[in-house]
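At this stage, I wrote out one protein's amino acid sequence and its backbone structure tokens, and that material follows here:
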Amino acid sequence: MTSLEFTDQVQKISYSLKPVAMNLTRDADDAKDLVQETLLKAMLNKDKFKTGTNLKAWLYTIMRNTFINNYNKITKRNSNIDSTEYFQYFNTDENYITHNGASSDFVVTDINAAIAGLPADYRTPFMMYYIGYKYLEIAEKLQIPIGTVKNRIHIARKELKQALKTYAPGV
């Protein structure tokens, strides 16, 4: 595929990226930025695209990964990490302080209890992932295979979802 053909196909597909970006960011300006960054990365890495594969899926993957990376950067930048046994997460940004102490105390207490109720093998990788570590970093730090890390985080999420189902929307 020539550069001109690649550019033409990317341009045609680019219109379908905006609704997906809007769904991810929930903000029109951020969605435009995300689409623009996605298209820039696609153009810079067009040599990595394999002809005959799904270009639209490739672009969606770039967009999703870009969004996740940006989100993780923002989350890491705005958080302080206390490396106690449970890797408690504290955020000192005034925008995140809740003013309804009664109901939020119950929720936080229930969440902390649910996390504390997880077996240590699941709790540790889950909390590391929650505070911003990547799968590979967790695997290296805990000296376990990356597949095991992913599996333990998945199981921890499932158990937390079950333990906190009373807070699910519509319940």
